[in-house]
Design a protein that fits this description.
The complex is a heterotetramer, with 2 copies of chain A (320 residues) and 2 copies of chain B (269 residues).
Chain A lengths: L8 E3 L2 E3 L3 E3 L21 E3 L16 E4 L2 E4 L8 H8 L10 E5 L4 H12 L4 E7 L9 H6 L1 H13 L5 E4 L7 H10 L4 E4 L3 E4 L1 E2 L4 E2 L5 E5 L4 H12 L6 E4 L5 H10 L3 E4 L2 H4 L3 H15 L13 E2 L2 E2 L10
Parallel strand pairs in A: 3-4, 3-16, 4-7, 7-8, 8-9, 9-10, 10-15, 15-16
Antiparallel strand pairs in A: 1-2, 5-6, 6-14, 11-14, 12-13, 17-18
Helix pairs in contact in A: 2-4, 4-5, 6-7, 7-9
Chain B lengths: L4 E14 L2 E7 L1 H6 L5 E5 L11 E4 L2 E3 L3 E7 L3 H8 L5 E8 L12 E6 L3 H14 L5 E6 L8 H6 L3 E6 L6 E2 L2 H12 L5 E5 L2 H13 L4 E4 L15 E3 L8 E3 L6 E3 L9
Parallel strand pairs in B: 8-9, 8-12, 9-10, 10-11, 12-13
Antiparallel strand pairs in B: 1-2, 1-7, 2-6, 3-4, 3-7, 5-6, 13-16, 14-15
Helix pairs in contact in B: 5-6
Classes of the chains: A alpha/beta (320), B alpha/beta (269).
The structure holds flavin-adenine dinucleotide (FAD) (2 copies), flavin mononucleotide (FMN) (2 copies) and FE2/S2 (inorganic) cluster (2 copies).
Chain lengths: 320, 269, 320, 269
């Protein structure tokens, strides 16, 4: 019998059984997709972005489909960190997969406070910092587009937790590697690339923006080439592991990110279309490794060949 | 949460029955046994393409012969256009049954169904079910823009429903809009205290709801919303709640699509 | 009889009969699509980007399809400004549409030289400056991402020509309005928004980038929501006319840009799919105006309504 | 530039004839009268969707009954999958005829056609045409991976061609690859100075071209390239020219798809 390939990877100190993660905002609070599969099979679950206080979100319409894309202006609607910990987390007891909270603050102080609050919660394995949400007017955008602000947020979260800290970058910047290096220096243990791209749509009949919020964040297959480019740029500029996100619909998309150098990947919009996407990717990556005689998925990370050369020579070390 | 399935079903028929209006049927024992009137399915159209990207929501229009489900749909964009291109034996993936469905009235209650255009889709299934429990004859008001759009008249008559029809251009039935009939009805028969079920364009629903609230009648409206996940995950399909401090927005896919009229903040609609 | 609507608009001093322009790099040197329609019906033709010296372009593959998008790394292959003027321009004599040259330089000096050379050519109505090409390693990228460099290029071109100067911006920046304001101050008479977005694709089977150049520029319907957002951002920050470009496939897409505030639009990738796209848009915009009783297309420019208000109040003035 | 048309045609048939291999036919007087062997069409698949986005290039495989054109295609991705879903009476938009086409040999010249897999598509049309002018019997070498992929044997025999077949796994014909046959042939019959026409996978073409160059034979290869516009506009379909200072790259859609073997820089292939 052929032995099963080792799909486990290490994300900034957090060892996970496979590199498939569900992206924040596309997997609810962790158990909404249980009718379709056992979430224990996932590498990590990242829950909906949380803030200190509950947030109502934007007035509808909040989502609009665009060619191969989804434009959303949810406005970070969430139940607040406290309610999540008290009411939602206990129901996840049967799920044998690390839970990561994605956090969003209106100020650096709020980020720090949330980190402190999460520190005492064993069930939460790590923190992903959203410094990139394009939907909320104040703050969010600024942190992710300015290297100093991004570094300060990172620093404050890192100082207030012993858990691994992942910073999720915004793509809406001139040079993503500058932000990546800033948060790496500030102590981030891993980086997620990317959040949504700013976009807009107009209803020609009414001459009104299709989203009440006017502007939204674009996700889905439309953004995959751009997300892949950003991951490529970040992996060649930092030493910490990078998690690839953006338009991943199947294991081949996932492999593109892994080959470029992502140590893990997140599935977002695809969860809405085929709720089994993430788990199908776990299965198909396993089959792929068997077929290609890859015993350990770390052998593929950063294996991109350019002019016959192994481009991302340092890919492997990131997971050791 | 109710039981929800993802199933690939094979189309039995898919035919045009009115102007831009199509009826599609497929068999599923599981879905048929779970489905309640007012619930919907999410249909995946893009087997070989990523555009359209998202699934599309359609009400369960009818259940027949125990396990045959039907969808009634209007071509309004690329997804419904693609749907109409499917032929017998083509397969589609559906997720459902989704949403809460209608609260069925008690056997002695008078029921009034109000459908505008495609709003007839879920109300047909509701009428089928109400017929089994109701002591009184069901009344239904059905409104279309023009005679070419009028559909299902014979099928509804077969259900032994007290049916009134309006068209805006007067080309069939009474000239006017469906809420005119309600106006008149409430003048005449308010005392029968009917339970109202309505589905149709949002402005029609707003009018019906406001009239029901004013007359202190129980009224259930089935709303639409732009949906991505249909499972309460994305929080896309928000609709403003009326005076609910714990929950500023309801989600059509989970809290609805059927709402009691006083739950909704109609001002912003 | 109903009178025909007036579709003419004014782009920084250049009055054109309708707002439909063919985008640089997607319409050859001006007459390649003659089998399909008479280019005299177009508002403007912008020809393939030209440099001082001919450029061979990148090794193939140069184009890859992505979900609803086209990733290209042509590498500015062109015959050079001199050959264009001598060999191609004379053959356009029968076309009764203004020709705009899109120019690209490796240095500010090259841009200035090209402006000088073009100044003496009557047939060329205006100059579009490409400061945004993402495919050429040196120079190009830098100009478009840095407000000072963008302003200096603009300034040098403006100083060397009496023709209207349009600056075509890159979307790959943190805040496009800063660049837009910089080129406006430097004397640009109009702004085109947007050039392609940086992207990448990987061949999973070979683990090589699908483009030999590794990175390419993304165009097509996938980018439309982002392009529209950028146009929105630019029109609200500058007073000169803005030309909308990105993913326009039909007249409704065109209207979205016009409603947001674009005084004209460019058709790019769509020319490859339906060669008649641009001319279909001219026809359909006419029909739309007739149906909606719009006597002058300027009435629609910037007519976006937000909260019942006419958002872009200044839209109209731009075309006077 | 040759005359090029955009035409919406109605599909007459579309059927599977081998493993993942389909044959589609439609009528067009205009295209049939203009088309030359080696030219191709750009087919638009996305009437109701923007994914796939670009048209797809297919060789004109055969012309029959004066005005019926056929395409022979293999399902390799989403575009060809969608193409195979089309049924009789569905319509597609095609642009063509595009490209230069094969230079037809003189009546007294010996002609040798070499096809690898789908490479047979344009060579069939070429064989039809050569048959009308050639004095000598045409020789054709046909290579496939395995017997399940083998197609068109009877049709080619009907053209009265001297046909040899290889499969890599030996399941039909001679075991090996199609260039093995060329090796042997050149040993045996170099003196007949055949004009070679080849179409197939790029590595096969490289081998054929290099052998032809070494033996100083005229050889035409039909290349593929990633195409967006097919009209020489986008400069996407570049292929490296051999020692041409004026033109570092040829464009497959305009300068090709047929190239004389010495025009191409085979080193970078
Ligand atoms: C719970 C529910 C049940 C429904 N049941 C039925 C039914 O039984 N029969 C039927 O014909 N339709 C039904 N609809 C509406 C149907 O989902 C839309 O018509 C369909 O999704 C449009 O898809 P499209 O790709 O053809 O149009 P698109 O190209 O996506 O859009 C065309 C137009 O329709 C609007 N639109 C798109 N999606 C929605 C939506 N979800 N709600 C409101 N407007 C939308 C767009 O804004 C646009 O103006 C239902 C919707 C919901 C939410
Ligand atoms: C001039 C010309 C004539 C052709 N004639 C025929 C023919 O008669 N019959 C036939 O079956 N095929 C022919 N092809 C190839 C055919 O165009 C491709 O197989 C088709 O475009 C693939 O589309 P898809 O959407 O199914 O695949 P995609 O999903 O686009 O791609 C699937 C795979 O095919 C590769 N591919 C895609 N397009 C091309 C291309 N243009 N050239 C090479 N590889 C490509 C991709 O890189 C990928 O590996 C021809 C190509 C050219 C350029
Ligand atoms: C409806 C929706 C809600 C989202 N909410 C969040 C969020 O709360 N926090 C966050 O960091 N990212 C959020 N995202 C971004 C996704 O996590 C992901 O980064 C993005 O969608 C790109 O991946 P995709 O193309 O696979 O969807 C959201 C995306 C969508 C579509
Ligand atoms: C093949 C190709 C070549 C292009 N060449 C140029 C160029 O030479 N100069 C330039 O400014 N833009 C060039 N562009 C960008 C287009 O002009 C346009 O800005 C971009 O494609 C977005 O529009 P679209 O989505 O309608 O294609 C090119 C685009 C494509 C696809
Ligand atoms: S559609 Fe996602 S929450 Fe309702
Ligand atoms: S495909 Fe555009 S130049 Fe050949």
């Amino acid at each position: 019998m052929v032995s099963q390939p080792d799909l486990s990877v290490n994300i900034g100190g957090l060892k996970i059984k496979n590199p498939v993660i569900t992206a924040s905002g596309t997997f609810g609070y962790g158990n909404e997709l249980i009718p379709f599969y056992d979430p224990s099979l996932l590498g990590v679950i990242i829950v909906k972005g949380l803030s200190i206080q509950p947030m109502p979100g934007n007035p509808p319409p909040r989502i609009i489909e665009t060619p191969c894309g989804l434009l959303n202006a949810i406005g970070l609607a969430n139940i607040g960190i406290e309610t999540f910990i008290e009411e939602k987390l206990p129901s996840l007891v049967k799920i044998k997969t690390p839970i990561i909270t994605n956090i969003y603050g209106h100020s650096i102080k709020e980020y720090a406070e949330m980190a402190k609050r999460i520190e005492s919660v064993d069930r939460i394995a790590a923190i992903e910092i959203n410094i990139s949400c394009p939907n909320v007017e104040k703050g969010g955008m600024a942190f992710g587009t300015d290297p100093d602000a991004a570094a300060r947020v990172t620093d404050q979260v890192v100082k207030n937790t012993t858990k691994p800290v992942i910073v999720k970058l915004t793509p809406n910047v001139t040079d993503v590697s500058i932000i990546a290096k800033a948060v790496e220096s500030a102590g981030a243990q891993a980086i997620s690339v990317t959040n949504t791209f700013l976009g807009m749509a107009v209803d020609v009949a009414t001459r009104q923006p299709k989203l009440t919020n006017i502007i939204g964040g674009l996700s889905g297959p439309a953004i995959k080439p751009m997300a892949l480019y950003l991951v490529h740029k970040v992996v060649t500029n930092v030493k910490i592991p990078v998690i690839g996100v953006g338009g991943i619909m199947d294991y081949q998309d996932a492999l593109e990110f892994i080959i470029v150098g992502a140590s893990a990947i997140q599935v977002g919009t695809a969860n809405f279309i085929n709720p089994k996407t993430a788990i199908d990717i776990v299965r198909d990556l396993t089959d792929y490794c068997l077929k290609e005689k890859v015993s350990n998925i770390n052998q593929i990370i950063g294996s991109l060949k350019t002019n016959g050369e192994n481009y991302e020579k340092s890919g492997d070390k990131k997971n050791k | 949460m109710n039981e929800v399935l993802e199933e690939t079903v094979s189309i039995k028929f898919n035919r045009q029955i009115g102007k831009d209006t199509w009826l599609m049927g497929f068999r599923s024992d599981n879905l048929a046994s779970l489905a309640k009137p007012g619930q919907f399915l999410m249909v995946h159209l893009g087997r070989t393409t990523k555009d359209p990207l998202l699934r599309r929501p359609f009400s369960i229009h009818r259940i027949q012969d125990k396990n045959q489900l039907m969808l009634l749909y209007k071509i309004v964009g690329k997804g419904t256009l693609l749907l109409s291109c499917l032929k017998e034996d083509d397969s589609i993936s559906v997720i459902g049954p989704l949403g809460n469905g209608f609260t069925i009235s008690k056997p002695h209650e008078k029921t009034l169904l109000i459908a505008g255009g495609m709003g007839v889709a879920p109300l047909f299934f509701l009428a089928q079910s109400l017929n089994k429990v109701q002591k009184q004859k069901i009344t239904m008001f059905l409104g279309f823009t023009t005679s070419q759009e009028v559909i299902l008249i014979n099928e509804l008559k077969d259900l032994n429903i007290d049916l009134s029809l309006t068209t805006e251009d007067g080309s069939l039935g009474i000239t006017g809009i469906v809420t005119d009939l309600l106006d008149e009805y409430l003048d005449r028969e308010l005392n029968s205290k009917p339970v109202i079920y309505a589905c149709g364009p949002i402005l029609m629903l707003k009018k019906v709801a406001q009239m029901a609230i004013a007359s202190n009648l129980r009224c259930y409206v089935s709303l639409e919303g732009h949906m991505a996940c249909s499972l309460g995950i994305c929080q896309g399909c928000a609709v403003k709640a009326n005076n609910n401090k714990n929950k500023p927005y309801y989600y059509v896919c989970q809290d609805g699509p059927v709402f009691s009229s006083e739950m909704i903040d109609w001002q912003v609609m």
